[in-house]
């Protein structure tokens, strides 16, 4: 039983470090795609160009923009529900859609974190189970053999304690990696919320219509020709 517990803990450790590598690649790719998309989107001269940029881009923020443009252009409404959908304020539909898309992107980035949390909380108990089982077997063997010397007790008990030590060695990195990735996830979520707020403000200034709303240098214009310059606040 004890060797089986040790191999189980080794497997958990391998999975933990593999998840770290996978999540770092995923977060790094998402951050690079979002950075490229933000630069191209806010460099566009109009919302029409911004829509074209989002259609050809990928990444969490690009998906948020695509969902928002679908509301503005009415593509989010099924043909059979147009009368009912038009009774809902477009601004409310846009706000709800942006929140839903952010939640979908967050869940995608969150994948695997529950496994790390489970490893961090259960690995010590798995190791303790191996230790208890090993000590129990050692005591049974000692009782059957009748040996009472220190050598007969210390060897099996010391071998059993390896499981507890390995369980702790697996749990500590899992918890640290989990906290690190959760922090990265929160930063990414804040960035998506900031972009969604900027996108909503831009659409609101354009009357939730694509016609006339422009991006680029800031200048005062009527609402129908609302202009938004660079982002009103820095995103992470």
From TrEMBL:
Keyword flag Metal-binding: no
Keyword terms of this UniProt record: Cell membrane, Membrane, Protein transport, Transmembrane, Transmembrane helix, Transport
InterPro entries: ExbB/TolQ_transport, MotA_ExbB_proton_chnl
GO BP field: protein import
Entry's localization field: Cell membrane; Membrane
Membrane-crossing segments per the record: 6-25, 113-136, 156-182
One Pfam family here: MotA_ExbB
Membrane topology of this protein: Multi-pass membrane protein
Protein name: Biopolymer transporter ExbB
